[in-house]
TrEMBL record, chains A, B:
Keywords: DNA-binding, Transcription, Transcription regulation. InterPro entries: HTH_LacI (IPR000843), LacI/GalR-like_sensor (IPR046335), Lambda_DNA-bd_dom_sf (IPR010982), Peripla_BP_I (IPR028082). It comes from Streptomyces adustus. The keyword Disulfide bond does not apply. CDD domains: HTH_LacI. The keyword RNA-binding does not apply. Residues 23-79 form the HTH lacI-type domain. Pfam families: LacI, Peripla_BP_3. SUPFAM superfamilies: lambda repressor-like DNA-binding domains, Periplasmic binding protein-like I. PANTHER family: LACI-RELATED TRANSCRIPTIONAL REPRESSOR (PTHR30146), LACTOSE OPERON REPRESSOR (PTHR30146:SF153). This is LacI family transcriptional regulator. One of its GO terms (molecular function) is DNA-binding transcription factor activity.
Length: 348, 348
């Protein structure tokens, strides 16, 4: 048997590893003719070590040729933390207002060189969820809603999270808190209807699962605004379905209501449509006010009055996260957010 | 000076490490009186090694007491992969239809013991994005839209992703493809309007950034359906604003259109409102059809005709991902998804 040495032209032999073998930093080091430590310094942009420009270029070139991607996990194991900000993905479908807020926040954190990761924690609750999040070793965790207790915060901090920020009605021990005054949404709606001379006020309480905590607070806000007046509040459970709205509208006159706060604009559109089909004149017989200030409310006739909700700005929140990451020892900050104001249109 | 030994009651001295030091598996091993390997076997649920129940209990107890959370990164470094399915978070605000799809998908993948992580890749494109995703070493990547090319797929696979699934109009080399026929949405809308006797068909093209790729395909579908007929298609750029819709409605009669496909139901609501304010009778003078089959279309008067879009079921997609993860060597699958059918209501 004879062996012939053949020089294979470079173009047909890309310096790629065998299919499905993952290139490592050792491969990069070999191809670039440097040490693994040098590869690590260059690719992690370490400024502590001086490395010449030509060497840097050689390492980057070799990494590119091999298709080498550093392992965030390995990097965070070395660094002790990542640039990852973890948020639980919403368990219920996010409304337009919250989706916009999330988008702004991602953008703002991205500009500060963080990566936002939304974690689908379907079916996990409290500490169990915190433990699952902690496994990813995020540098900060941002938790909207009421899903986290003090034990969960402690789990996250022990696993290396430098900042935990909650968005909810109550502060959680050990975490920064953005206090969202959801009662305030109901309070301004109730006060508005009262000021318009209404005294028999219905409040829509959505039957969709996942909205209870919010709808309870909005209802409590209406009650609070009308406490000590001669107005009466009636709770109106309602599913987000045409048929349910038609059934409610059919007994509207026996309910004897002269006003309704519809939880949000989408329920407002649903109920207003059913009331109009039933011949109830809006606002003469019944004043209607929604919440969220969505475009659709402006497109209804009569135009739907609403509560405009000012969510915290993505930029402010991103800066709070960044501040908290830089100073993990600082005392938790508490901020009141969620300004509520009535946008008075034709329906009330 | 005298020293007094005091036995501090257990309740006030939890076996926690000093604040901010992260407990390790070595701490767990020490407290449980077992080896680190045993801790790893127990906490990773390895079935290959037999470990007695009392020992298992002791390890779990110690882990709990210390607040020890395994490091997903370390675990995936050892195992070579994770149970993480990564999806890029949508760059534009997701509509209700897509949000619902995402929720179902997360749920279905969760039931198969995967964790869905939505990655906010604001400002990254193609290979750069793929490289960023690859750093998290997901076991599968699911990419809606057109953000990934063959090079990106290769980067992901080399970093250990066993499956890459794209949802788009074209297959991408090396990836499983769910082909979404967005032209079909326009095609059925165009055919419907033609069948209703309409010949001068406007097509709304949203001016919002991020919707171009979809709206172009829907427009092409309408053109396709009407090619070779005597019908004429007019492109109608429109911003999602009342004023823009009012301006378009004001010149409606000089445009001489007898029908309009409004891209989706939300634009349908916007334009229908403006046309009605302008005194245009719907459907007599102008037939209107939207798309997405949202609740709001049913609440309009006249009720809005629409194109119902059947997205792939979360369960089917989750099963495809799971199959692909189990058999990473199998040839990429291609599936046609996105069924389109007209829901004929009062507006057309």
């Amino acid at each position: 048997m004879r062996y012939v040495m053949v020089q294979i032209p470079k173009s047909t032999t890309p310096a790629l590893p065998a299919p499905r073998s993952v290139p490592t930093s050792a491969d990069v080091a070999r191809l670039a003719g440097v040490s693994r430590a040098t590869v690590s310094y260059v690719l992690n942009n370490t400024s502590a070590v001086r490395i010449s420009e030509p060497t840097r270029r050689r390492v980057h070139q070799a990494a590119k040729e091999l298709g080498y991607v550093p392992h965030a996990a390995a990097r965070s194991l070395r660094a002790g933390h990542s640039r990852m900000v973890l948020m639980p993905a919403p368990a219920v479908q996010a409304g337009p207002l919250y989706s916009q807020f999330l988008n702004d926040l991602q953008w703002a954190l991205g500009r500060l060189d963080y990566t936002v990761v939304q974690y689908g924690s379907v079916g996990l609750c409290d500490d169990e969820a915190a433990r699952a999040w902690a496994e990813l070793r995020p540098v900060a965790v941002l938790v909207p809603g009421v899903e986290l207790g003090p034990a969960g915060v402690a789990v996250l901090k022990r696993s290396g999270a430098r900042a935990v920020v909650t968005l909810g009605s109550e502060p959680v021990e050990g975490a920064h808190a953005l206090l969202m005054d959801h009662e305030g949404v109901g309070r301004v709606a109730g006060a508005h209807l009262h000021a318009r001379g209404r005294r028999r006020v219905g409040v829509v309480v959505p039957e969709e699962p996942g909205l209870e905590s919010l709808s309870r607070l909005r209802l409590a806000g209406v009650r609070d605004a009308l406490a000590g007046t001669d107005a009466v509040v009636t709770e109106l459970p309602l599913a987000y379905e045409e048929e349910a709205a038609a059934r409610l509208a059919a007994r509207w006159r026996e309910l004897g209501l002269d006003a309704v706060f519809t939880y949000n604009d989408e329920y407002g559109m649903l109920l207003m449509r059913a009331l109009q089909d039933e011949g109830v004149r809006i606002p003469q017989e019944t004043a209607v006010i929604g919440a969220d200030d969505l475009m659709l409310g402006r497109l209804l006739r009569p135009r739907l009055s609403t509560v405009h909700i000012e969510l915290p700005s993505g930029r402010d929140l991103a800066e709070l996260v960044d501040r908290a990451v830089r100073e993990p020892g600082a005392a938790p900050e508490t901020h009141q957010v969620l300004g509520s104001s009535v946008v008075h249109r034709e329906s009330s």
